[in-house]
Amino acid sequence: MLKFITEIFKFTWLYNLVKMLVENVFNISIDTQLGSSLHFFIYDTVKIIILLGIMIFIISYIRSYFSPEKTKKTLEKFSGITGNIMASLLGIVTPFCSCSSVPLFIGFVEAGIPIGVTFSFLITSPIVNEAAVAILIGTFGWKIAVVYVITGVIVGVVGGVVIDKLHLEEQVEEYVYQMKVGDSEIKELTRKERIKFAVENVKEIVGRVWKFILIGIGIGALIHGWAPAPILAKYAGPNNPLAVFVATIVAIPLYSNALGTIPIAEALILKGVGIGTAMAFMMATTALSVPEMILLRKVIKPKLIAVFVAITGIGIVLVGYLFNGIAHLLI
């Protein structure tokens, strides 16, 4: 049974099915640029939607045990680096979007949770979300997915610890400390309610991100079929020491999520771009997006935002070099 499930999630069956569709129905060879792009687009769209639905349901069911109120109460129990580790781990199973950053930040500060612990949560949460892990497994394999999760947590923990050591509490807007958001009642859900919550989350999240997915897959399909592999390999390959740094800088102004960037990363890697370069691009796009910075500016001052961007950016660049360095062990 396990072997059967494993074969299904290798998606070889889907690859061959889409190949038959492109070549027999559309009468286009997948060895051509157009056929290659078309096959990539259809194959990745179906694969990602399947993985998206399954993983969102599973993680949403788990997430039903970790409401924002319960997350806050859990973090209140830990201090020091243990608090940073717990915050980053909770960031994995409680992947709130950037629009939730401000109320979460206020709630954490109001509860007396250290600034560094709060930032560990805010760094990890967008990088390692409920669907990215499944899509990474389906796209790149479990080794890359596991290293991605581990490094995402490490960036969150280290970033939070450094921010805590800098003692930047005065860089939080004064009104935040004066606010009292109070505690909402934590309602225990039945199994039926948790399943309903998971199903609703699947509908809501897929409905919210499908545009990003299609755009990402579309860009990936164009890269896959038309981008010149030798040029990409030369300037963005693992042997170019500046590629990871440039990819991180370029990604910061962009606005997307891991779901929209994974297909692009996949296409780039297939064209010879370094794994670390692609991973750094993904992480920077999700963790350092301009919209999140704008929202965070409502509760923290520019100096702390600059420190947050600098520390997280450095961490992502180092992760990129790590991925490039151990790429031969992951593929």
TrEMBL record:
Q: Which residues cross the membrane?
A: 40-62, 83-106, 112-137, 144-163, 209-227, 239-256, 268-290, 302-323
| Family that this chain belongs to | Belongs to the UPF0718 family.
- Indicate where this protein resides in the cell: Cell membrane
**PANTHER family named among the record's database cross-references:** PERMEASE RV2963-RELATED
Which key words are in the record? Answer: Cell membrane, Membrane, Transmembrane, Transmembrane helix
GO cellular component entries: plasma membrane
Q: How does it sit in the membrane?
A: Multi-pass membrane protein
Lineage, highest ranks first: Bacteria, Bacillati, Bacillota, Tissierellia, Tissierellales
Task: Record the organism.
Answer: Caldisalinibacter kiritimatiensis
List the protein's name.
Answer: Transporter
- Among the Pfam families in the record, one is ArsP_1
